[in-house]
Amino acid sequence: MAIHWRGKLSIDGGPLDADHRHLIAIVNRFDGDCAAEGNRPALRRALSDLRQFARRHFVREERLMREAGYPPERTREHEDAHRTLIARLDTLVRHYETSAGDDDLAEVVWETADLLKHWLVDHLVRFDLPLKPYLKRSVRLSAPRATAARFWAARA
């Protein structure tokens, strides 16, 4: 069953939301290509896409947390959660690479589905949504500076 983006998942109306929409697209492709068929090439592509996405997204998210003044203790906890997700993903990739038969492949598919569920349901709700007020405040505070910068740049 396809997952659809909902406005209540919005965090910043910008790059993080775009990243989360991309994650949902990866999840939906995984669900269609891998979960039903156990398709080895599709699973390899999904794991590769997830690895690339996670590394890029987590760097962006952690940078925005610091820029928005997110509390340091919550930032560390969030970064730890990111490292845990990356470690789980790396373990899945190793399991995929050493999988020999259909049973091994089915286990990797199941473990990947479990990771994706945790990522979308637990991580997004527990760690990402609480960023929203900090990111909104950060945008409001930076808007006057950006406007002033554009004003002076236009006069230069």
Question: What does this protein look like?
Answer:
- By secondary structure, this protein is an all-alpha fold.
- It has one domain (14-138): Four Helix Bundle (Hemerythrin (Met), subunit A).
- It is built from five helices and no strands.
- The chain has helices spanning 15-35, 40-67, 72-98, 102-128, 132-155.
- Helix 1 runs antiparallel to helix 2, helix 1 (15-35) runs antiparallel to helix 4 and helix 3 runs antiparallel to helix 4 (102-128).
- The model is unreliable at 143-152 (pLDDT under 50).
Write the layout of secondary structure elements.
Blueprint (H helix, E strand, L loop, with lengths): L14 H21 L4 H28 L4 H27 L3 H27 L3 H24 L1
Helix pairs in contact: 1-2, 1-4, 2-3, 3-4
Name its key features.
single chain, Four Helix Bundle (Hemerythrin (Met), subunit A), 156 residues, mainly alpha
> What's the overall average pLDDT, rounded?
85
Overall number of structural domains: 1
Number of helices: 5
The gross shape turns out to be elongated
The string of secondary-structure elements, in order, is HHHHH
CATH architecture: Up-down Bundle
User: Main sheet?
Assistant: none
Any idea of the CATH topology? Answer: Four Helix Bundle (Hemerythrin (Met), subunit A)
